[in-house]
Amino acid sequence: MTSVNEVLKDNDKVKINYQDEIIALVRSKSSPKVVKDKLSEYHASDIADVIEVCTLKERELIYRILDMQSLADVFEYLENASELLEEIDIQKAARILELVDADDAVDILKDADPKMRKAWLSLMNKEHLKTINVFYSYEEDEIGSRMSTNFVTLYCNLSIKEAMTSIIKQAKSHDNISNIFVLDENGVYYGTISLNELIIARENDELLDIISTSYPYVYSDEKIDDCIENLKDYSEKSIPVLSDENKVLGVITAQDLIEVVDDEMGEDYAKLAGLTAEEDLKEPIFESVRKRLPWLVLLLGLGLVVSSVVGLFEAVVSQLTMIICFQSLILDMSGNVGTQSLAVTIRVLMDAQLTGKKQLSLILKEMKVGLLNGLLLGSLSFVGIGLYIALFKHSPAVTAFSISACIGTALLLAMVISSLVGTIIPIVFKKIGVDPAVASGPLITTVNDLVAVVTYYGLTWIFIIDIMHITC
Amino acid sequence: MTSVNEVLKDNDKVKINYQDEIIALVRSKSSPKVVKDKLSEYHASDIADVIEVCTLKERELIYRILDMQSLADVFEYLENASELLEEIDIQKAARILELVDADDAVDILKDADPKMRKAWLSLMNKEHLKTINVFYSYEEDEIGSRMSTNFVTLYCNLSIKEAMTSIIKQAKSHDNISNIFVLDENGVYYGTISLNELIIARENDELLDIISTSYPYVYSDEKIDDCIENLKDYSEKSIPVLSDENKVLGVITAQDLIEVVDDEMGEDYAKLAGLTAEEDLKEPIFESVRKRLPWLVLLLGLGLVVSSVVGLFEAVVSQLTMIICFQSLILDMSGNVGTQSLAVTIRVLMDAQLTGKKQLSLILKEMKVGLLNGLLLGSLSFVGIGLYIALFKHSPAVTAFSISACIGTALLLAMVISSLVGTIIPIVFKKIGVDPAVASGPLITTVNDLVAVVTYYGLTWIFIIDIMHITC
What is the spatial distance between Cα B400 and Cα A364, in angstroms, rounded to a whole number? Predict the structure, then answer.
């Protein structure tokens, strides 16, 4: 991104760093009028980035110089907005909260010091408070909590010319005008017009003819998890969010969706790694410990179960110590295969509403992949480890290849079963309404460890010690 | 998404399933004119979903009934577009390829049978072929490969009225008109106007006054990895993509960005799980095997290294068989902690351009988190496993707690070192230009296993066998 990082190549490209320009501007001794005119040229996101590295004095200059709407735009991009808002005169802060998009205002208010929040709320006008209360009422996993209130509407009985006039009027305070939502005489959502269609329509066309009545929409209390895939598939600039009474409450814009997708996938990614939520660099250490500890404690407990099972085979190990060398190999491999199946299954579950038939085909596919990989790696281990034992441990060839046969077979079995477990457990969790990404990890690890240990030591016991009578 | 799934609640909400409606429409015996008029009401994404479940005969009806532009819109949403395009008359198919957005056309052509591709290309007009060649020239990791050519431009010397007339003209064939890109007399990118500003401007305002010259832009050959975070931060409807000569080649729309974010995070998610790329349900089994095998083979090799090291401690194990029970516990825990650190580090590396100081603070933070978690779990293990051995293995208390002290200490050390390794290795890989998400996993697992094994058996050897003289 050339606006922020320098372009390295030496050609015609202009090397512009907007943030440096803004800092220089703020630090210049130019008159407020000059700074204001120049500052208003920059993108609110760039100004926000600069504010985060400014001194308090420089920030105060920016607060004083920018007009209220520009300041509100900047506050929508600030990460620590509620902290910085406290630096601003309380009256002005309340006005900013009225001007930022309602979902951002709610985020700022939620993060704020309770005293400040109360003070700000008491100074905001009633109309805005009503909107903000609506947002407060949504759970974080409901799509309503992510919508924007920046949208324009039309009544369906207007002429093309009246419609255009109305849109021009609304464009002054709303900049999401690409899609226009049409209401019937009772204010109920009727359909959508794209601004393009309206612009190219002739004056004596009928407005009704350019309304798309089968345009996608979503209800404000739908779960994000349930509707996000469809919202993504439509690939629209904005999709209306309706109340239970089918009134338009807001829109989900493509920009809102980017955030939602980013957050949802970040969460799944974190969960796959055994974190209860996504972390970032600025987070306090105890917060990070708290996010990681639950899974670790659970795994420690489950690890003890595996240890107890390994304990059952102490007698086998004491007769043939060499076999413990390869325990880690088999456990690691079965763990890796399980994680691969888990990751694939979770992504598939997230992407699609699976029918029973498709679920079965997914399970079968994972089994086949596990079987193929198991056959390949099992054979590789049989030959490789057999040679390794014969050469480096100086065992007779029969002993070496008997042991490596057990390892290869255990590997094959462990891999097939791990693929199965890694597929079935998340499907079952999904079915009983538990988040598969967070719950599957520990259980799969434990089940796979147990299977691998029992197969490996069991096989060695029966085949090598009982049948072949090989001991060390 | 109510347009697809049924709404479950029993209230005023309208239960509409657009796809069922479309299928019923296609299967009805209505005249082509009626079906066409009704079909044009639906969203191209919904029609695409229906096409994927239709019979060939029904598809042929849709191909025949829809006009070319609508058909092109639908093809932009089809997953197996190149396959379905073969069902269409070759002349008509070439025309569709001209009408779909150039980046989608390239995707369809890349997936297509080489013979068909050649035939289609030979029938397309030269202007379109030129655009398509531009897209073919981008690598998959360059932002140019993701841009859309659906955008509108203006020359900067126009009056407001002339500008508006030009936009109305362009709106007929382009529907991304929210941001208008302004060119100087040589066609070089000059700045951006938002359609809002243009609409609310008065006829005698100056066009120059509403041009934002510090609007973000991106060069077509920038790496997606390098610019995606900035593109996301701007949260804009569209951002211009420039050539080396600063001409506007295309735009990255918010919808394009959703796809990019989804793909990028999907890839990282897959890599974290040890897959070389994201998989889906429809993929052939051998393709899945190929994606998973490399990591598994590598891990098998590295696992053998760990096995060799465990082999060095055979003597310790033969003297105190009980200790092998807890090997899996310590290896699993160190693996889990390493994965957590890896996941956090990769996300942080992806989100931010880290300075040396910030990298150090990340490493320190991970060490502290590892130390705290290690202390907690180490103590827990010391007490818990001590009691477990004393009660279930009927060992004397001294033996039990000596062993559990070794386990606790080994756990503490392994967790601290795993946190470190899980942080430093991805940072180093990033620095030397290797993708940290794909390369870190195997190395971290192996290093952590080695550290854990050496610490655990080493401690047992020195403390229990050499100092305390405890054997089984």
Answer: 46
